[in-house]
Amino acid sequence: MSDNRPSTNARPSSNVNQNGKRRNEEGQDDLPQPYNASSLQPVKRRAVSPSEQPRKQKRPGARARISESQREAIQRRQVERDRESASAYEEQNNSRGNHDVVRQHYNSVPERGREWRTRDSKIKGLRVFNNWIKSCIIQRYSPDEDHAPGSREAGRSSGKELLVLDMGCGKGGDLNKWQSAPQPVQLYVGLDPADVSITQARDRYRNLSSRGGRGGHNRRPQPRLFDGRFYVKDCFGETIESLEIIQQVGFDPSPMNRRGFDVVSMMFSMHYAFESETNARNMLRNVAGALKKGGRFIGCIPNSDVLGEHVRKWNEEHAAKKKAAEEAKLNGSGADEEPAEEKEEGEAEDDEPPADPGAEWGNSIYRVRFPGKTPEDGVFRPAFGWKYNFFLDEAVEEVPEYVVPWEAFRALAEDFNLELQFHRPFLDIWEAEKDDRELGPLSERMGVRERGGGSLLISEEEKEAASFYLGFCFYKV
Q1: Which residues are annotated as a binding site?
Q2: Principal place where this protein is found (predicted)?
Q3: Domain total of the chain
Q4: Residue stretches of the annotated binding site for mRNA
Q5: Domain housing 417
């Protein structure tokens, strides 16, 4: 076969002949062939723009014309975006900071043992009283509606065992209370953000397991100990749905959830969620998602009515003192006082009045202090972010807590299909349950009262501190 590549010295006419020959042999030759440039179509011209006015060309480097008002508006929007971004960042940091402060505090509280708590503690009366109150709430509101009262005490099986989720379980201080619950517990899951507390809760559970559980009075045998699981988890800032044990039991916030826990407990911890509406809603979503239909949400929190009344009285007294000081100044009662020191040349003038102190009250064992301005009428609006510092001797060292306005909490709980069943201050619970057939003798065995139905064995200062709290129960409907 002859070489079909064109010669570089060939004339145009010979190129045409060779191209013709190549086209005739194209079907027989599989080798790649060169393009014939002479056969290409000429490039089409772009159509003229239909617009009547030709677009004006910008001069190189010329700036788009923006009016001064438009420029100011753009700058204002940018400043607002920067401010919102900084505010969101600061709020996130503050929230994270408060969370870390609380976690570190509870991690640092030493575990002194049961004997010290009941004998040597300065607030042993308050400790046993609060524990008795928690026992009352568990005894009254943890069982199913169809549970037969007294069946466990009589040694009869009720057929159904409880699945319990304890949010903010701390060091496991309520394990014995659940072991003594009227309806037996099959599974107990404890969650807490403090890793040291979770470690101590596991140790307490192992010790309880080695003893086989604490038996009841009247020589009843020790009941079988429930299955206990413990996890480090923030139940307010995160969803608990990702935990494998939660998925196994069932998680569904809808009212049609037939799976899930029978009881969610939150003792002395829920107030941390009211730092923000986001955290409060996330907390309630976790509660509602974990509970089955008909499940109970029980717990205890600071009483917002007590907080509000103290704040209202403090504001009244502070306003009266301030008014008296101003009237004394107007009446010239300070005329004989020494004149204020003159400012040195160049020294800045301090024209800002001193900030008003926040509301504060308490006694030798507890103290509440608001760091900023509080509502004059004692009604906390809006419902979130009302921070105060709380001190309780031997237990809480100036930790930031948050007011839980009761009506706002109840209304928010309804959004998650949680219906209120019980709501009562601690001292009212004592009056209602102290003579109960089971809870009355329990108060004597715990050292809350004297034997034989005697008087309450806590001091007036401890009673004042106890009045700071209330108990509650919601049903998932």
Answers
A1: 130-131
A2: nucleus
A3: 1
A4: 130-131
A5: 107-151+158-303+405-476
